[in-house]
Amino acid sequence: MGGRSKFQEISRNVKKMLSFTYLKALFLNPAKLSITAFIIIIAELVLNILIVERVPYTEIDWKAYMQECEGFLNGTFDYSQLRGDTGPLVYPAGFVYIYSTFYFLTNQGQNIKLAQYIFIGIYLLQLHFVFKIYEKTRKVPPYVLLVTILTSYRIHSIHVLRLFNDPIAVLFLYIALNFFLESKWNLGSIFYSLGVSIKMNIILYAPALFFFYLVNLGLKDTIKQIFLCGLIQLFLGLPFLIVAPVSYLHGSFDIGRVFNHTWTVNYRFLKVKIFENTYFHLTLLAIHILLLIIFLPMCIQYFKSYCRLRYVQKQVQPQIDAKNVENKRKARIIKDKLKLQEVNEEKLTKEQEEFLNSFESMLQKTSNTNLKKKKVDESENIHYSINFDVISQLFILPMFLTNFIGVVCARSLHYQFYSWYFHSLPYLLWSTNLSVIVRFLILALIEFCWNTYPSTNATSAMLHVCHLIILYNIYKKTSAELRVASKVE
Q1: Quick one: pLDDT at residue 199?
Q2: Distance between alpha carbon 78 and the CA centroid of its chain, in Å?
Q3: Can you give the C-alpha Rg of the chain in angstroms?
Q4: Other C-beta atoms lying within 10 Å of the C-beta of residue 46
Q5: Contacts of 118 (CB under 8 A, 6+ apart)
Q6: Res 484: pLDDT
Q7: Which of 5, 211, 359, 473 could form a disulfide with 432 if both were Cys (CB 3.0 to 4.6 A apart)?
Q8: b vs e for 177-209, b when ≥16 Cβ sit within 10 Å of the residue's Cβ?
């Protein structure tokens, strides 16, 4: 009896999974993303292996990274003396330690194929943490991520054909975001600071993170988290700070560094003199600060709502869990009674069974009630739940938006910088009221701009237009929502 019912249950589940409704939900329902995410990761594993095996590797920075780390491993702790073919070392200490590890693993950087496979692992791990965020927020349909992730030529190139340090920094950032969503503040701060120690672009998230700390933890604990972040930087940079502190700080955190116009993706249409002009850089910085100020009220309001709802969750969730435990206990008791009743029914004589069957048929005709079905229903475990994970949207949008503002106002975007915000683009676009067609059009145009090498005046201008459309429509939607919310209050 038990084996037969289990087989029937498995059969029902298989039929359900093969049904059109279920398959449709896998592509359209954000709540089903976990299954689609698994499929994407498997597809990405196969795709990246094919890329590594069939597409020629292109040397850009890997050799220089190895040369810089070799100087460190040979005992040089003065940052001004650590150089490679592309110039001086310009990344913080975390970069040095990670790429020194790669130096040993890849036979002093000679085993490029092994390095590529390591980066496949890094990319898949990053996808895992990205999908965890999307699963919690339930904002974006799975098919959007399926299309955008699997079809991006530039992102795959950055990860497994170029071996840049940007993806590693972004990986630590996504790990930190997941810890923050789980209210694991210390771990979140540690991994955020580790991301900064690999590449300084992770600081673009800092304005939003500061106010997130402040709203959720208060001033005292905010200072503690900032101190923890600083302590990580101090600990990692200590060997270099002891020997040549000025060289280390100037080399790894040089905010005044002038980029080469040759590699720019976003400002090809500017003349070199304007591109390298200090006043142009200051203007971009002023615009950056102005945009942060404009979006600051929205970010703070979102963080306050997030904080309140997390408090409600802490109050309500224990009651829900207790109720579910009680229902489970009751369901087990009812199930045991039904099993006992089935055993007793098996002992009935043939005449007794015929009488009970005829009696049940009579009841069905008069009251249209199925007694056996009622017994099964009574044994089902009623489970109560509230999807509190959806409130993660109130944290993720301000974080992604703050980083995006930094990208919009960047003095120069190089091709590897696409990894800074690529995986957040679907979320940002699905946070607007634009139509699905327009959203995909913008994603396609941005991908086209990043895939055009060298960049042109048209692609640089188009990239800015796409960025500004996203920014404006997020502002438009969030402003309307906040106005409605203020009237309700």
Answers
A1: 95
A2: 36
A3: 29
A4: 9
A5: 102, 105, 106
A6: 79
A7: 473
A8: bbbbbeeebeebbbbbbbbbbbbbbbbbbbbbb
Q: Are 196 and 204 in contact (CB under 8 A)?
A: no
**Tokens 């224990």 label which residue?**
318
Residue range 342-353, pLDDT digits in tens: 555 555 555 555
Amino acid at 400: F
Q: Which helix (H) or strand (E) holds 88?
A: strand 87-88
- Exposure pattern of 258-279 as b/e (b: 16+ CB <10 Å)? ebebebbbbbbbbeeeebbeee
Rounded Cα–Cα distance for residues 341 and 339 (Å): 5
Q: Using CB atoms within 10 A of its CB, is residue 104 exposed (0-12), middle (13-18) or buried (19+)?
A: exposed
Q: How long a stretch of residues is the chain? A: 489
**Residue 362 scores a pLDDT above 70:** no
Average pLDDT over residues 420-430: 98
How far is Cα of residue 440 from the mean position of the Cα atoms in its chain? 19
The pair of structure tokens assigned to 274 is 């304007």
CA separation, residue 373 to residues 8, 12, 15, 354, 462 (Å): 16, 17, 21, 19, 63
Residues whose CB is less than 8 angstroms from the CB of residue 319 and which lie 6 or more positions away in sequence, other chains included: none
